[in-house]
Write a structure and sequence with these properties.
- By secondary structure, the protein is of the alpha/beta class.
- The chain has 4 domains: 216 residues, Medium-chain alcohol dehydrogenases, catalytic domain (Quinone Oxidoreductase, Chain A, domain 1, Alpha-Beta Complex), CATH 3.90.180.10; 137 residues, 3-Layer(aba) Sandwich (Rossmann fold); 122 residues, NAD(P)-binding Rossmann-like Domain (Rossmann fold, 3-Layer(aba) Sandwich), CATH 3.40.50; 181 residues, Dihydrodipicolinate Reductase, domain 2 (2-Layer Sandwich).
- 35% of the residues lie in helices and 23% in strands.
- It starts with a strand and ends with a helix.
């Protein structure tokens, strides 16, 4: 299928051929009929992409701060790869469309194939021929409503949510600053609610349009006409609400709002304008400044948007889906008219030219629609979530010539895969990147373009059935690791799965059942730190132990950003369940054994944990996993003490061994580039696949580390140590 994309690094716009998205449970596959260009939001993104790197940095200081923090935590090389990988990728455009349901995922019963729906979301309602849309981000189109009008559903919901935040009442007077697409819709919604509206915009054509659509008066914000209209309609008191629907870097809108708003009035920010509030003006009138967050309650909540968990109507009357349905109803009943807003309808194949004309100013428009070609019949869209039937007996591993390259398939192409694994594999001799599989079409296409995969697809079954694929990398979200690993093992593939291997004991049991039933134990989990050159060299310098050891491991994990999928503990497990295996495996590697018991306690009111591991020879390892430490402090520091010696590891950049007489640096005392072992780990895995030799880490050790990680939660729940021999 085709999709409109942009390269944020170069600014290039293109219509790409990308794989058809799979129809996952909880959503529908929609073939687009019309999609709407948001001439404000999207053109801002398009213009930003065309800036120099310095200008991009100045426009996004929040992202610059993240880069600085990443350098402190992960080092310059890893941060550079991550940032350049993100910049030099195609990103999607679009977030408002109308189309026809072509496939219905499991758990969806409110629409059927052939129904017309309006769709929302900058990850799901894209300028693409087909989109997978989760349940709470689409709404059925009322009978008789034209598809091109229903395509306004998302931007209409944005305007509607802004009006709701203003809490207007019959007889109120409101000022709308900025009469672009959102502003024009706000004018109509207010007028339909019995509110008298004054509009402000420097464009006379937009002012005239707003007056035709219901505004009492409009004018240039710099002229006295707007102030005079407000004085006449309010008796000199000022407007009840001001709706900021303008963009740009001028502070004029917020200053005008303060001047024309009544005492204790409301100012609602809908757009993205400069907000340097003049303190005296806002204080003296005690103005209530409010923000309107996109389409309504539920926005940016992954449980609502992705998992379909609705908010009870008795507690949240207007969610983003209910806003979408409400706006469609207003359109269908003629209370809002979007036809006068349609400045241009372009064929989807002309998307790049249309964006360029808008950017250059050749095409003056309030709203532009893409019209998609009609297709008969249903799309043959592969689904990646259909569970495979478990097979008994031995599944033969792929046969390959000793001189032929190792052919790899990747399931998932997120940040870690594209910044830490694929750059190294793409440059490695004797490796062929065969196929990349993702649930979103564009991420697979980006990985194919940047790393040289032969194929990009959303069809996992086809990859697992491809006998020429030697190994499968599972680099997806945590909740899918165990199931994807089980399926790949059953298909006879060698498997490299990022941590964690499993989130529950049942998931771990399913993986081990697949090993037993298939006879395929070719498994590696991404516990890369044991392969770190500095750690291995420090272990050699420390030498063999004669007595038990004490190991202390401080992990300064830091806080997560709001919206991070790591916070979705209901589906993705706790932070320690997802990451803790790294540290347990590192401790076990240094102590030369697997733990026999785990005891964990949590600090009240935080995610901080203290985990105590006991080993067969009496050694202990104490892991302090803290999220409340300062961001500038190193992430990982480790001390191993035994036989009168100390091994000190400082965040994988420096290490030393103290033997009571002197301090011996491992390598140079100067900090090195941080190397956490990914390169050596990949080399060991590829060698094992190529030669058929033992996997880099014994399966029993992988299982023991996973079991110990899961036992942390059990110990927290029970308040007592957990003996691992019984759990295993």
């Amino acid at each position: 299928m085709k999709q409109v994309v942009q390269n944020y690094k170069s600014g290039e716009l293109a219509v790409l051929d990308v794989p058809v998205p799979g129809c996952k449970p909880g959503g529908v596959l929609v073939r687009s009929a019309y999609s709407l260009i948001s001439t404000g939001t999207e053109l801002m993104k398009v213009s930003e992409a065309g800036m120099s790197m310095l200008a991009k940095a100045r426009s996004r200081p929040d992202q610059v701060a993240k880069v600085v923090q990443s350098v402190a935590t992960n080092g310059v090389p890893a941060t550079y790869r991550k940032v350049m990988g993100k910049l030099d990728s195609y990103t999607p455009l679009g977030y408002s469309l109308c189309g026809v349901v072509e496939q219905v995922g499991a758990g969806v019963d409110d629409v059927k194939v052939g129904d017309l729906v309006a769709c929302a979301g900058n990850e799901h309602a894209l300028h693409a021929e087909l989109n997978w849309v989760p349940k709470n981000l689409y709404a059925p189109v009322p009978d008789g409503l034209a598809p091109r009008h229903a395509a306004f559903g998302t931007v209409g919901s944005i305007a509607l949510q802004g009006v709701r935040r203003g809490e207007s009442q019959l007889g109120d007077v409101a000022l709308v600053i900025g009469l672009g697409l959102i502003g024009q819709l706000v004018v109509q919604l207010l007028a339909a609610s019995g509110v008298r509206v004054v509009g402000a915009d420097p464009d006379p054509a937009r002012c005239e349009l707003a007056e035709r659509l219901g505004a009492a008066a409009c004018g240039d914000p710099a002229s006295p006409a707007v102030e005079a209209a407000v004085a006449e309609l309010t008796g000199g008191h000022g407007v009840d609400q001001v709706y900021l629907a303008a963009g740009g870097g001028s502070n004029q809108p917020v200053e005008l709002a303060a001047r024309l708003c009544r005492d204790r009035g409301r100012v609602v920010d809908i757009g993205k304008c400069r907000l340097d509030l003049p303190w005296n003006a806002y204080y003296e009138k005690e103005l209530d400044v409010r923000f309107s967050r996109s389409y309504g309650p539920g926005r940016y909540d992954p449980e609502y948007e992705l998992e379909g968990r609705d908010y009870p109507i008795g507690y949240v009357r207007w969610t983003e889906r209910r806003n979408l349905a409400c706006f469609l109803d207003l359109l269908a009943r003629g209370r809002v008219d979007v036809e006068p807003l349609v400045s241009h309808i372009a064929d989807f194949d002309d998307a790049v030219e249309t964006y360029q004309r808008l950017k250059d100013g050749d095409l003056k428009a309030v709203a532009v629609l893409f019209r998609y070609p009609e297709h008969a019949g249903e799309a043959e869209a592969p689904a990646v979530t259909v569970p495979a039937v478990r097979r008994s007996g031995t599944v033969p591993a792929p046969t390959r010539s000793a001189k032929s390259p190792v052919r790899l398939a990747f399931v998932g192409a997120g940040n870690y895969a594209t910044s830490m694994l694929l750059p190294q594999l793409a440059q490695r001799d004797g490796v062929e990147l065969s196929t990349v599989v993702t649930t979103t079409a564009l991420s697979a296409t980006n990985a194919k373009r940047k790393f040289g995969f032969a194929e990009a697809t959303t069809d996992l079954d086809a990859v697992l059935g491809d006998k020429s694929v030697d190994a499968v990398f599972v680099v997806t979200r945590h909740s899918s690791h165990a199931e994807l690993t089980r399926r790949a093992l059953t298909a006879g593939k060698a498997v490299f799965v990022e941590k964690p291997l499993a989130l529950t004991e049942d998931e771990l049991a399913d993986v081990l059942a697949a090993v037993e039933e298939s006879g395929n134990d070719r498994l590696q989990v991404g516990f890369n730190r044991r392969f770190a050159p500095l750690l291995q060299e420090a272990g050699r310098r420390f030498g063999a132990r004669t007595g038990p050891a004490s190991l202390r491991y401080l992990v300064n994990a830091g806080r997560l950003e709001h919206g991070s999928w790591y916070l979705q503990q209901g589906t993705e497990g706790s932070r320690f369940a997802g990451e803790g295996g790294h540290f347990i495996d590192t401790a076990s590697r240094l102590l030369g054994a697997d733990p026999v018991s785990v005891y964990a306690v949590a600090t009240s009111g935080t995610d901080d944990l203290q985990v105590m591991l006991r080993y067969p020879d009496g050694s202990t390892a104490a892991i302090s996993y803290v999220t409340t430490g300062p961001p500038g402090f190193p992430k990982e520091t480790l001390d191993l003490i035994a036989d009168g010696k100390v091994l000190r590891l400082d965040d994988f950049v420096r290490a030393a061994v103290y033997d009571g007489r002197r301090k011996r640096w491992v390598g140079s005392p100067l900090p090195k580039a941080r190397d956490k072992g990914q390169s050596a780990e990949l080399a060991a895995f590829i060698k094992a696949v190529r030669t058929g030799g033992p996997m880099p880490v014994p399966l029993q050790s992988l299982v023991a580390t996973t079991t110990a990680t899961l036992a942390v939660q059990a110990s927290l729940a029970g308040g007592a140590p957990v003996t691992l021999a019984r759990a295993r």
